[in-house]
Amino acid sequence: MKIIDLEPGDPRLEADMLPVLRELRPHLTPELFHEIHRNGRPQGLRFSAAYGDDGTCVGAAGWRIIDNTSSVRKLYVDDLVTAAAARSTGVGHALLAHLEQHARATGCRELNLDSGTHRTRAHRFYLRERLDIAAFNFAKSLPTGGAEG
Q1: Cα distances (Å, whole numbers) of residue 64 to 54, 103, 108, 120
Q2: Residue 36 CB neighbours (<10 A)
Q3: pLDDT (tens digit per residue) in 108-132
Q4: Cβ pair 95, 61 in contact under 8 A
Q5: What's the pTM value of the predicted model, to 2 decimals?
Q6: What 8-state DSSP symbol labels residue 15?
Q7: Helix and strand tally (H, E) in the chain?
Q8: pLDDT (tens digit, 9 = 90+) per residue, 43-98?
Q9: pLDDT of 149
């Protein structure tokens, strides 16, 4: 397996990685993905893709380095997904190890991610990978297109 950090403009972002990412984020159209990447890149958004021995993209990770008051510096994982056909083959483990290397190399104190409460299989994986449940995440949906009426 080979893991590659993809740079803006790399055609593999859309051709290879986006189909895998859409398994986790089905709302992502190519246009929306490009908009998010364009706006998120200055905020630190990066993408890494895992490729199998046959050259097929089998995993994707969106991530960023964040400095904040609670953890000082952390690598936050926005997205972590293994293609359905490649699950339980070590892809997720390899992607997490790759991200942990980035975190250590940049002086992060932790690697952090959020996971939807319904994703119990993912939670079992994260616990096996020695991630702890360290916080609750609270969210409030906000209307788009203007102020609340």
Answers
A1: 28, 9, 11, 24
A2: 15
A3: 999 999 998 899 999 999 999 999 9
A4: yes
A5: 0.90
A6: I
A7: 5, 5
A8: 999 999 999 999 999 999 999 999 999 999 999 999 999 999 999 999 999 999 99
A9: 47
Domains in the chain with CATH codes: 2-128 (3.40.630.30)
Tell me the CA distances in angstroms from 14 to 24, 34, 63, 66, 132, one per residue in order: 15, 9, 17, 25, 32
How far are the Cα atoms of 69, 75, 110, 114 from residue 72, in angstroms, in the given order?
Answer: 5, 10, 9, 18
In degrees and rounded to multiples of 5, residue 106 shows phi and psi of: -105, 15
Q: Which two tokens stand for residue 88?
A: 């339980």
Distance CA 47, CA 62 (A): 4
Q: How far is 78 from 40, CA to CA, in rounded Å? A: 11
- Round to whole Å and give the CA distance between 8 and 35: 12
**Count of CB atoms situated within 10 Å of the CB of 40:** 15
pLDDT at res. 27: 97
pLDDT for 12 equals 97
